[in-house]
Specification:
CATH topology of the largest domain: Glycerol-3-phosphate (1)-acyltransferase
Largest sheet: 7 strands, mixed
Oligomer: single chain
CATH architecture of the largest domain: 3-Layer(aba) Sandwich
Number of domains: 3
Order of helices and strands: HEEHEHEHEHEHEHHHHHHHHHH
Number of strands: 7
């Protein structure tokens, strides 16, 4: 990239991305965008603004650029060429893609990048979809990567044809699950299959985005928070510390979710979690200040969302780790962990292990055993960190003394999953 292109990207990207983010009021299906790995993303196309929306959202979700196949006519002048290259465009002859285009596409997909191709080929009127072209699907087949359909609603109002500057308006996105070609067929048939499947799914996604009421649109912020939580869990499962780039990416994605719904308890709690992880991995005064912020922010979340499980979990950890001189109490930790365990779906045993830690701190051996047995019975090993947590629960359970009245040497009878109720208040 030339110095001019670098300067132009540095100057234009922040305000354009900020403008996109403030307009997004719905982001459904964020979980379908993989954190890593190559794919072809196939959006409907009604406005030049589509480019900025797709690039901004995927960058917030993945932290990497998205490359766009763009008609070669857009590169005819020096200014247009520089502008499109700054915004990750690859020139293509839509009727007959040349070798240079194919090489650039292959480089993007081999490098694990995202390639955006508009199946309609050109901007439509904003109503019915235009006929699909095969290019997007042929590139996906050649690169052996999935196609992810996306519906954009509202971009044609933000930047209509002929407009030079964006107008007022909001934008909704709905993202579909990755589409794979059937095995054992010719490339022509596979491309046709993908085209039909993508069009059908895009029509469904457009209907979802157009008909969702405001509450449904805001609720998508919680699913975006779920994506962040899963990626933090995956990073923690790989090591004791979460890499800074993962935390930075989490903050960017949560900022997008917060714009969709500023009152979402899940989003607010995840932001506290990121603060806590940064504090935990820091040292000295920064760690102490971060810990204090976690308690204050967590309690603030619970005032508005008293059943938010992540906030309860974080406060449970705070009460176990902080000194008693600051008001930390293991009994309070047990109460928060029990609330978190009740709010999380079965399979995630973090709160149960935290509850065992808190009950152990107050000497409640039977309560520790109940919490660990519940974790062993309900833990889902397919979750990030699941096998390690289950192994830890089994090891701790085996190390406990026999339950009062148990006959040593006899195998325990099969019982129902124990109810976990903290015996402390």
């Amino acid at each position: 990239m030339s110095a001019l292109e670098s300067i132009l990207r540095a100057v234009t990207a922040p305000p354009i991305r900020a403008d996109v983010r403030r307009r997004i009021t719905m982001l459904d299906g964020a979980e379908h965008i993989p954190a890593t790995g190559a794919f072809v993303i196939a959006p409907n196309h009604t406005s030049y603004y589509d480019h900025f929306v797709v690039e901004t959202v995927l960058r917030d979700l993945r932290g990497t650029p998205t490359w766009f196949l763009t008609k070669k006519e857009s590169f005819v002048s020096t200014l247009k060429r520089v502008w499109h290259e700054v915004w990750y465009s690859i020139p293509v002859d839509r009727e007959n893609p040349g070798p240079s285009t194919i090489r650039e596409v292959q480089a993007v997909l081999r490098g694990g990048g995202a390639l955006a191709v508009y199946p309609e080929g050109t901007r439509g009127p904003g109503g019915d979809l235009l006929p699909f072209h095969a290019g997007a699907f042929r590139f996906a087949l050649a690169g052996r990567v999935p196609v992810i359909p996306v519906a954009l609603v509202g971009t044609d109002q933000v930047l209509p044809r002929g407009a030079r500057f964006p107008k007022s308006g909001s934008i909704r996105l709905a993202i579909g699950a990755p589409l794979e070609a059937p095995a054992g067929v010719t490339k022509v048939i596979a491309a046709e299959h993908l085209s039909v499947a993508c069009r059908r799914e895009m029509e469904r996604l457009l209907e979802v985005a157009r008909t969702a009421d405001d509450d449904d649109a805001r609720a998508t912020a919680t699913s975006v928070a779920g994506v962040v939580s899963a990626r933090l869990d995956a990073a923690l499962a790989e090591g004791e510390a979460v890499p800074e780039e993962v935390l930075d990416q989490a903050e960017a994605t949560l900022a997008l979710a917060r714009r969709i719904d500023r009152r979402s308890g899940a989003v607010r709690a995840l932001r506290v979690r990121v603060t806590g992880l940064r504090a935990q991995q820091a040292g000295g005064a920064r760690r102490l200040a971060g810990a204090a912020q976690v308690r204050l922010a967590g309690e603030r979340v619970l005032r508005n969302h008293p059943e938010e499980p992540m906030a309860h979990y974080l406060l449970g950890r705070w009460h176990l780790a902080a000194p008693s001189a600051l008001g930390a109490r293991p009994t309070t930790a047990a109460r928060h962990f029990a609330q978190a365990a009740a709010g999380w779906p079965p399979g995630d045993v973090r709160a149960l292990l935290g509850l065992a830690d808190a009950l152990e701190a107050v000497g409640d051996v039977d309560g520790v055993r109940d919490a660990l047995e519940c974790a062993v019975h309900t833990g889902d090993p397919s979750l990030p960190g699941g096998p390690r947590r289950l192994e830890r629960a089994r090891a701790r359970l085996a190390a406990l003394p026999p339950r009062a009245g148990a006959v040593v040497g006899l195998a325990p009878a099969e019982t129902e999953t124990p109810a976990v109720v903290p015996t402390t208040t």
